[in-house]
Amino acid sequence: AADPGSPYRVVLLGASGVGKTAFASIFAGAADSMDSDDCELCGDEVCEKEIEVDGEPVTITLLDTWDAEPDNEWAQERYMQTGDAYLLLYSITDRTSFLRASELRISLRRFHPAHHTPIILVGNKCDLVRRREVSVSEGRACAAVFDCKFIETSAAMQHNVWQAFHGIVRQLRLRRDSK
Ligand code: GDP
User: Fold this and answer.
1) Whose C-alpha lies nearest to ligand 1, atom 6?
2) Which of 39, 89, 142, 169 is 20 to 30 A from 136 via CA?
């Protein structure tokens, strides 16, 4: 088998309640993981495991510690610098979380001034159609402004969550291959 290489650190970012924990548990409980005990480093907030994307193995360390220290600016700033890539979540049912995602995107740019850090803007909870406050086109437009990819997901329905993880791996590989 191909060597999955050193782990990529993928960081979950976003306001409280948008679905970061739900994303992390889907990742940790991956049905498509290669064997059941490959999640050596799985805790509440960090999970490391090997997955396969486009037929090639890859090791991902997923971090979900954003909400752990809400008032610790230093910890948050450090957290924003630790990732190789970011999933920036908001809830389509919560406009405030969408605005928060924009703020976080701006902060990320400060910590990653070069433009090659993969970021995907993720509009989660797309199953809650009748509670939608942020349209698909707003999400897409925001991603275009901030020069990142965009996807709508439903962690509750397990819809597009793996597509988001796979998308981030593809971007990391493109970056790696262009070096
Ligand atoms: P976090 O604070 O960002 O970690 O958010 P959580 O993952 O704890 O989710 C907050 C709440 O939203 C929980 O009650 C989840 O069950 C719920 N939730 C998360 N993702 C979805 C989703 O895609 N659809 C729906 N309907 N609920 C969701």
Assistant:
1) 19
2) 169
pLDDT for 40 equals 55
- Here the ipTM equals 0.99
Q: d(Cα 159, Cα 147) in Å, to the nearest integer?
A: 24
pTM given for the model: 0.91
Nearest by Cα to 61 from 70, 72, 50, 52 = 50
Within its chain, how far is the Cα of 27 from the centroid? Answer: 11
CA of 149 to the centre of ligand 1 (A): 21
In whole angstroms, give the CA distance from residue 136 to residue 100: 17
Rounded to whole angstroms, the Cα distance separating 92 from 18 reads: 9
Weakly modelled stretches of the chain, pLDDT under 70: 1-2, 30-44, 68-70
